[in-house]
Amino acid sequence: MMRKRIILAVIFLFGVGFFFYVLWDNNRIKVVEKDIEVETDDGITILQISDLHEKEFGKNQNKLIEKINNVDYDVLLFTGDMLDSIDSTNTGSFYTLIEGIHNKEHAFYVPGNTDPYSYDVTEHHVEKSDFVKGMEARGVQLLETVEMIRVKKTNYYFVYFDAATIGNVYKAKDMIYAPYATEPIYQAYLQKRLDDFTALEAASEQDVLIGVTHFPVVDNRI
């Protein structure tokens, strides 16, 4: 009987400890650094932020903002799931975060599966959604196709990977799941965006191409 009580006590303490560990782990901020070797004479630092799901770190995001502003980076990427559902209007935590970030010279966003749709589509018109407009007004740009930045002597082409696979083995959320996905005017808009990829024709062997997506990339998509 005593042994059974000891086992139950150990299980209980383990459960309590695990609960508090998960609680601590979900509320801490850790910058994970990863070096990727490319054939270029210059280096670039990219700060990637993903899957916040409306999470707040400190009052008015002060803890996360402080952590970001203490990182020396060239490009800032938000790679999806900033909000918690497609229908969410709770943009406050994300917008507050953007407003507090100092370095937004090169700041881009690509959507995840729980973000509001990127576009509003009518029978005669396609425009960016209020969610995207609010984000862009605060300094973070929707990466629709290709953006090129130059750091030192090297050109870096940032490509919205999902847009590059239109008509292939995979399409992003806005391109296949949105209620307007099959609308002719939206399909025409996508085809015009494909023309933007001609910018890559100017790329040289020394330039760097970086595909950006929220979703894990499998070999056949590459």
How does this model look, in words?
- With 222 residues, the protein is an alpha/beta fold.
- It has 6 helices and 9 strands; from the N terminus they run H-E-H-E-H-E-E-E-H-E-E-E-H-H-E.
- The protein has helices at residues 2-25, 62-69, 92-100, 130-137, 173-176, 184-194; strands at residues 46-49, 75-78, 107-109, 119-121, 126-128, 141-142, 146-151, 154-160, 208-212.
- A 4-stranded parallel β-sheet has the order 1-2-3-6, covered by helices on one side.
Query: Beta fraction of the residues?
Result: 15-25%
Q: State the helix count.
A: 6
Separation, N- and C-terminal Cα atoms: 61 Å
Give the topology string: H per helix, E per strand: HEHEHEEEHEEEHHE
From the spread of the alpha carbons, the general shape counts as: globular
Q: Major sheet: order of its strands?
A: 1-2-3-6
Structural class: alpha/beta
Radius of gyration: 21 Å
Largest sheet: 4 strands, parallel
User: What is the quaternary state of this protein?
Assistant: single chain
Question: How are the SSEs ordered, and which strands pair?
Answer:
Layout: H1 2-25, E1 46-49, H2 62-69, E2 75-78, H3 92-100, E3 107-109, E4 119-121, E5 126-128, H4 130-137, E6 141-142, E7 146-151, E8 154-160, H5 173-176, H6 184-194, E9 208-212
Question: In short, what is this structure?
Answer:
The chain is an alpha/beta fold and about 220 residues long.
